[in-house]
UniProtKB/TrEMBL annotation:
Entry keyword annotation includes Transmembrane helix: yes
Every Major facilitator superfamily (MFS) profile domain range: 4-382
Protein name, UniProt field: MFS transporter
Compartment list: Cell membrane
PANTHER family: CHLORAMPHENICOL EFFLUX PUMP RV0191, PURINE EFFLUX PUMP PBUE
Domain of life from the UniProt record: Bacteria
Keywords from the UniProt entry: Cell membrane, Membrane, Transmembrane, Transmembrane helix
Alphabetized Pfam families for the sequence: MFS_1
Primary location class: membrane
Bilayer-crossing regions: 42-61, 73-93, 99-120, 127-146, 158-180, 201-223, 229-250, 262-283, 289-309, 330-352, 358-377
Region (Disordered): 384-406
Source lineage: Bacteria, Bacillati, Actinomycetota, Actinomycetes, Kitasatosporales
Length: 406
């Protein structure tokens, strides 16, 4: 794999740390600003919605900027947002800083995915995407637990200042390791928007919203769920987050490896397993060992869906991928926002801190249903292709020989 993928992984590490670290620091932030846990959960919802809004806007604005320069500019925005959060005097300012940082998220991964896929042979695209997203998963093994530990001992503000420093390191890494990219071809906005007329693209994005969104019903309220419901000490949350992160690393690499071989079977397996694992967690919280087994399993199954879904969108939009790639990253975070909101609703309704997992299980099961629809549509399109129409096979549009009539 090209060394440039390391630079992209560094940026992903910083973004992953800031995205997930609030799950471990939610009680500390809520206490300092005098808000409830569900209200503090808006830091996750706001971040996710910021990704959804910022991804298409910045992808379009940066479509004519050399991709290396755009990636560096996005990380500069990320640094500014985290610095605002760290210095926030009131909850509203911290939320604003989260939104500023989130604007960099979708466009960075969307543009970074195009760069990563372009650095390798076509049959290694998913593996290259998984390598970039490894930074995001490693953040959950190292960055998030360390950020949680630092936040609980030295204050959550220190954590966010350190995350801003990670952003500076990412800018330097991109400058040093990513090769100069040619200016993107002058693709018309209408060409980028045309991708959204493809039903397979829309189905993939809907699967993205529902699939990984289900994971966030657990992660948003992870700390109170583990301490109040499962009975773990606050100091144990860090190590449970490490287990969750290790699961994400393994799932990401497995998803990238098998998506290049059998994309839809990989996706169906991961989504089905994720729905089952999320449904099991409320039961597992009655036993600490069972909880420690199910938590990393959810991380593995959840992130095993990421490389295949992103590759599927890129394969279906090969002529104009920038906007669709960024929007699909936004779709991950739209699912996160919906999950955090729904999770807060069931907690506020008095169903307890484990209840959001039932919501997550329902979301993952819905994504599985859409994946089955997508596979059926793909088979039908393939059958039509045999009669001379284009066919879709494993996310690739295969042109059929032109039929000549006399």
């Amino acid at each position: 794999m090209p060394l440039a993928l390391l630079a992209l992984a560094i940026g992903a590490f910083g973004i992953g740390t800031t995205e997930f670290v609030t799950s471990g620091l939610l009680p500390e932030v809520a206490d300092e600003f005098g808000v409830s846990i569900p209200t503090a959960g808006y830091l996750t919802t706001g971040y996710a919605l910021g990704v959804v809004i910022g991804a298409p806007i910045l992808a379009v604005l940066g479509s004519r900027v050399p991709r290396k320069k755009m990636l560096m500019a996005l990380m500069g925005l990320f640094v500014a947002g985290n610095a605002i959060s760290a210095a926030a005097p009131v909850f509203g300012v911290m939320l604003a800083g989260r939104i500023v940082a989130s604007f960099a998220h979708g466009a960075f991964f969307g543009i970074g995915a195009i760069v990563a896929a372009g650095l390798v042979a076509p049959q290694k695209k998913a593996a290259a995407l998984a390598m970039m997203f490894t930074g995001l998963t490693v953040a959950n093994v190292v960055g998030v637990p360390m950020g949680t530990m630092v936040g609980q001992s030295a204050g959550w503000r220190v954590t966010f200042f350190l995350i801003a420093g990670l952003g500076v390191l990412a800018v330097l890494g991109i400058a040093a390791l990513v090769p100069q990219q040619p200016r993107p071809e002058q693709t018309r906005i209408s060409g980028e928007l045309a991708a959204f007329r493809n039903p397979q693209v829309l189905l993939a994005m809907a699967m993205t919203v529902l699939g990984f969104g289900g994971v966030f019903t657990m992660t948003t309220y992870f700390t109170p769920m583990m301490t109040d419901a499962a009975g773990f000490a606050s100091s144990s949350v860090t190590w449970l987050l490490v287990l969750f992160g290790l699961g994400m690393v393994v799932g990401n690499l497995i998803g990238g490896r098998f998506a290049d071989r059998a994309l839809m079977p990989m996706l169906l397996t991961a989504l089905g397993g994720l729905a089952i694992a999320l449904a099991l967690l409320p039961v597992a919280t009655h036993d600490k060992i069972a909880t420690a087994v199910v938590v990393p399993l959810i991380g593995a199954l959840g992130f095993a869906t990421v490389p295949p879904l992103q590759k599927r969108v890129l394969d279906q939009t090969a002529d104009a991928p920038t906007l669709a790639s960024a929007v699909n990253i936004g779709a991950f975070n739209l699912g996160n926002a919906i999950a955090a909101w729904l999770g807060g609703l069931v907690i506020s309704a008095g169903f307890g801190y484990t209840a959001p997992n039932w919501v997550g299980a329902a979301m993952a099961a819905s994504a599985l249903a859409l994946a089955l629809v997508s596979a059926a549509l793909e088979r039908r399109t393939g059958a039509q292709g045999a009669a001379g129409a284009p066919s879709a096979r494993d996310g690739r549009i295969v042109a059929q020989p032109e039929r000549v009539t006399t």
